[in-house]
Amino acid sequence: MPELPEVETIRQRLIKGFDKSPSILGQTIKLVRLFWPATLSEPDLQTFSAILPGQKVLAVDRRAKFLVFTLTYSYLVVHLRMSGDLYLEPQESSAEFRNPDHDRLWLDFESGWRFVFNDMRKFGRVWLLGDTTDLFSNLGPEPFDEQLTPAVFAEMLQNRSRLLKPLLIDQSFLAGIGNIYADEALFQSGLHPLRMSDSLSLAEAGRLLDSIRLVLTKGIDQKGASIDWVYRGGDFQNYFQVYQQTGNPCPRCGHPIEKTKVGQRGTHFCPVCQKNDPS
Q1: The domain 150-269 is classified under which CATH number: 3.90.550.10, 1.10.8.50, 1.20.59.10, 2.60.40.10?
Q2: How many whole angstroms separate alpha carbon 78 and alpha carbon 57?
Q3: Residue 56 φ then ψ, to 5°
């Protein structure tokens, strides 16, 4: 599943233009075509198809792993889930230069360009809303939120008595982090994935917050991680310290990286550099 850096990369790609495609900003929707009914969560297709034409894309934002397209008088929200991808292409090229079998939604623009939601595994979802408050009501703070200070983060950790790894990927606790960046941040901070959240000191909480922001920033700088056929062009996989490095020497101490399951998720760590020993 794409995490914050991958979703942010797609957001920037849509705004700036990518591979000769223009920016999505200012594009006016002319026609809607939905190929997989379950992709549309809200509203019904008839309403969706009636409301969108004529609306212009004014902004593209990210909340957690959601992309939010501000339109003339509504919001189009997309969650990519396991295998979704978004891009623009010329309307006449869809069937000519690639296989569109996994396309789930097309929005044709008046300019002749097309917004494509491609999703092989069919788990991605789309909402058309007048307000996003209810949809995002259960999300935790963004990792880069300036109001998320070390003291606030430490209090959040203290208020829960949970294993660190499952807590970090809980979107109601902190928005946007998944398996890759949780493993990398825990290694960067020297914290074991099985540490209890309320055992962290203020200094450890601050170190973890700094590490989360560091690995997310590196991920964004490298345009995310290309570990699936869907995500093209990301290089962060070349900088993994522990994720998918099972058996390789730890870049700090040389001990082999180990993999275990925490909360039913594969978890990579160094047992020497990340001792489960509250200081």
Answers
A1: 1.10.8.50
A2: 14
A3: -105, 145
Q: Would you say 224 and 13 are in contact if contact means Cβ atoms under 8 Å apart? A: no
* The residue type at 6: E
Helix (H) or strand (E) holding 258: strand 258-262
> For the domain 4-129, what is the CATH superfamily, name and number?
MutM-like, N-terminal (3.20.190.10)
Specify which residues 265 forms β-bridges with. Answer: 262
| Catalytic entry in 30, 122, 162, 265 | 265
More confident residue, 264 or 139: 139
d(CA 22, CA 43): 28
Please, are residues 108 and 54 in contact by the beta-carbon 8 Å criterion? no
Q: From CA 239, how far away is CA 225, in angstroms rounded? A: 9
pTM of the model: 0.92
> Looking at the predicted structure, is the pLDDT value of residue 229 above 80?
no
3 catalytic, yes or no?
yes
Does 2 qualify as catalytic in the annotation?
A: yes
Q: Which residues contact 4 (CB under 8 A, 6 or more apart)?
A: 62, 64, 65, 143, 175, 176, 177, 178, 181, 216, 219, 220
Of 2, 143, 166, 193, which one is the catalytic site residue? Answer: 2
Give yes or no: 65 in active site: yes
DSSP 66-93: EEEEE-SSSEEEEE-TTTEEEEEEEGGG
Residue boundaries of the structural domains of the chain? 4-129, 150-269
- Cβ atoms of 172 and 138 within 8 Å: the answer is yes
Decide: 242 and 273 in contact? Cβ < 8 Å.
Answer: no
Task: Kindly name the residue from 11, 13, 65, 223 that is annotated as catalytic.
Answer: 65
pLDDT band of 228, cuts 50, 70, 90: low
Pairing of strands 84-90, 40-42: unpaired
